[in-house]
């Protein structure tokens, strides 16, 4: 797996590179600005780009904008965005552009090597990895949508885990239920969110995006 890292903190940047190399991965380039990481991605054609949300010059959303631009230039590129704390709008902005091969994690997750490597592998494999803390904070803001109110507590748990990027078997393991039970809950979620099998969309993706987009709506 070939990786490019963009992080303006030199200690974190080099520490992350050392960690990944120790895990046997190929870090082909590191960068400290959005402009330089885009150049590195163009040059090295990595499998995965790991980017900090906030980078010079304004330290606002350069990393997210770079991630979106990198995906535009290289549609097959997997992107894992890191943030010091939960920034819900950045998570949904990134994921709305397409959920395959995308991740959004808090930087503290990097120190939990097994969790971090699992998330990186999921993203590299074309899946999603959303930090559980991001999901938890988004979930507290979904009650304004009447369709979300239709979901049972268990269905909300299942949808939250879907938003983290877990597959059916992983959700079953997390909730200590059977795969069949998870499948039944997901079918019910689709029905309650008015997602028809006839729709020309991936219903699983649509359910997660509905969940995340709903969380962005202003509170009243």
Task: Give structural attributes.
220 residues; alpha/beta; Arc Repressor Mutant, subunit A; 2 domains; 11 helices; 53% helix; 14% strand; elongated; transcription regulation; phosphoprotein
What is the strand and helix layout of this fold?
Layout: E1 2-6, H1 10-22, E2 26-31, H2 34-44, E3 48-52, H3 62-73, E4 78-83, H4 88-96, E5 102-106, H5 113-124, E6 128-130, H6 132-139, H7 146-149, H8 153-164, H9 168-175, H10 179-192, H11 203-216
Helix pairs in contact: 2-3, 4-11, 6-8, 8-10, 8-11, 9-10
Would you kindly provide a written description of the structure presented here, covering whatever features stand out?
The protein has 220 residues and is α/β, with parallel strands linked by helices. It has two domains: 2-130, Rossmann fold (3-Layer(aba) Sandwich); 140-216, Orthogonal Bundle (Arc Repressor Mutant, subunit A). It is 53% helix and 14% strand. It has eleven helices and six strands. It has helices spanning 10-22, 34-44, 62-73, 88-96, 113-124, 132-139, 146-149, 153-164, 168-175, 179-192, 203-216, and strands spanning 2-6, 26-31, 48-52, 78-83, 102-106, 128-130. Strand 1, helix 1 (10-22) and strand 2 form a beta-alpha-beta unit. Helix 8 (153-164) packs across helix 10 (179-192). The relative contact order is 0.10. The mean pLDDT is 83. Residues 144-215 form the HTH luxR-type domain. Residues 2-122 form the Response regulatory domain. The modification 4-aspartylphosphate is found at residue 52. This is Response regulator transcription factor. Keywords: DNA-binding, Phosphoprotein, Transcription, Transcription regulation.
């Amino acid at each position: 797996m070939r990786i490019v890292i963009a992080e303006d903190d030199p200690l974190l940047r080099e520490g992350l590179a050392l960690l990944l190399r120790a895990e046997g991965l190929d870090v082909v380039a590191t960068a400290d600005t959005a402009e330089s990481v885009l150049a590195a991605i163009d040059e090295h054609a990595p499998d995965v780009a790991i980017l900090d949300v906030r980078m010079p010059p304004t330290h606002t959303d350069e990393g997210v904008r770079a991630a979106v631009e990198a995906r535009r230039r290289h549609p097959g590129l997997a992107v894992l965005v890191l943030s010091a704390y939960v920034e819900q709008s950045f998570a949904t902005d990134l994921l709305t552009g397409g959920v395959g091969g995308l991740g959004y994690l808090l930087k503290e997750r990097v120190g939990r090597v097994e969790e971090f490597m699992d998330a990186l592998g999921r993203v590299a494999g074309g899946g999603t990895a959303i930090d559980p803390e991001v999901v938890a904070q988004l979930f507290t803001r979904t009650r304004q949508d009447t369709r979300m109110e239709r979901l049972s507590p268990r269905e909300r748990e299942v949808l939250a885990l879907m938003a983290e990027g877990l597959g059916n078997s992983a959700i079953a393991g997390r909730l200590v239920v059977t795969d069949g039970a998870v499948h039944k809950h997901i079918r019910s979620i689709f029905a309650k969110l008015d997602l028809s099998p006839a729709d020309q969309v991936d219903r699983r993706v649509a359910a997660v995006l509905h969940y995340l987009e709903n969380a962005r709506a202003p509170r009243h």
